[in-house]
Design brief:
Elements (H helix, E strand, L loop, with lengths): L9 E4 L23 E4 L12 H12 L6 H6 L7 H13 L3 E6 L2 E6 L3 H14 L4 H11 L2 H11 L1
Antiparallel strand pairs: 1-2, 3-4
Helix pairs in contact: 1-3
Length: 159
């Protein structure tokens, strides 16, 4: 399916996301615009919350994981060695921000990134564009500032 127009409030279903958990599997996020399927959603990632240093490290850990992780799994992959309660607090905040889902499995909870790193970056770019008084001028300057290879890739993606 080729998407010609996305509206605010639409989300993109990526091929390769786990159908049960919605977790994005590594390598499944490189999708050309012509290969996406649009579905209406109540809420996009939205205002794209600013991430603190530890939140960003936790998200990097979740984005790199092949599936969902427990808080202890997340903690073990962090270089700063925060307490488990700190990791649980960060995961809870990320869940409230809509960036992480949580599922109970016995006594443990498993956490999963709602979208990919690329989804988050795309949302940040949209937020930045929304602040421009002249979106066309901002886009033109952006396209003029990127490397020729990236411009060529952008042309390919647009069809």
């Amino acid at each position: 399916m080729f998407v010609t127009h996305l509206q605010v409030g639409d989300t993109v279903r990526r091929h390769g996301a786990d159908p049960v958990t919605g977790c994005v599997r590594p390598g499944a996020v490189r999708v050309a615009l012509r290969d996406v399927e649009v579905q209406s959603a109540k809420r996009r990632i939205g205002s794209v919350p600013n991430l603190g240093e530890l939140e960003r490290a936790v998200m990097e850990r979740l984005w790199a994981a092949p599936g969902s992780l427990t808080a202890r799994d997340v903690q073990e992959g962090l270089t700063t060695n925060p307490a488990t309660t700190t990791v649980l607090t960060v995961l809870s905040r990320l869940q409230r921000k809509g960036l992480v889902t949580r599922e109970r499995d016995g006594r443990a909870h498993h956490y999963c990134a709602v979208g990919s790193r690329e989804d988050h970056v795309a949302e940040l770019m949209n937020v930045a564009l929304d602040t421009a008084t002249d979106r066309s001028a901002a886009l033109a300057r952006f396209v003029g500032s990127i490397a020729p290879e990236e411009r060529a890739r952008l042309r390919d993606l647009l069809g």
